[in-house]
């Protein structure tokens, strides 16, 4: 149970760091009077981080089957 909670905290921390980084980029664009601002960049950064988390951890049970050929890194290449 403890390991599962630590994995969840790691995922939440990754999403939080992505939101902070996206917010910093959005703030810089807001200061320079560009159209896409803080909220837009935060949402894009969190969405991209979520796709990366899913591509890294979401297919462990499917990859272990011998009949399935799946490459989770292809999701990351499309982000």
UniProtKB/TrEMBL annotation:
Pfam families found in the cross-reference section: MgtC
Classify the main location: membrane
List membrane-spanning regions.
12-28, 40-60
Q: How does it sit in the membrane?
A: Multi-pass membrane protein
One GO cellular-component annotation of the UniProt record comes to:
plasma membrane
Which domain of life does the UniProt lineage start with?
Bacteria
Q: Where in the cell is it found?
A: Cell membrane
Supply the alphabetized keyword list.
Cell membrane, Membrane, Transmembrane, Transmembrane helix
Please give the family membership noted in the entry.
Belongs to the MgtC/SapB family.
Alphabetical list of PANTHER family matching this protein: MAGNESIUM TRANSPORTER YHID-RELATED, PROTEIN MGTC
User: What protein name is recorded for this chain?
Assistant: MgtC/SapB family protein
Natural source organism: Lentilactobacillus parabuchneri
């Amino acid at each position: 149970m403890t390991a599962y909670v630590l994995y969840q905290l790691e995922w939440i921390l990754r999403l939080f760091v992505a939101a902070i980084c996206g917010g910093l980029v959005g703030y810089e664009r807001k200061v320079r009077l560009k159209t896409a601002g803080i909220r837009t960049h935060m949402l894009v950064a969190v969405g991209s981080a979520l796709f990366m988390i899913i591509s890294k951890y979401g297919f462990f049970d499917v990859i272990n089957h011998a009949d399935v050929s799946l490459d989770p890194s292809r999701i990351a290449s499309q982000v």
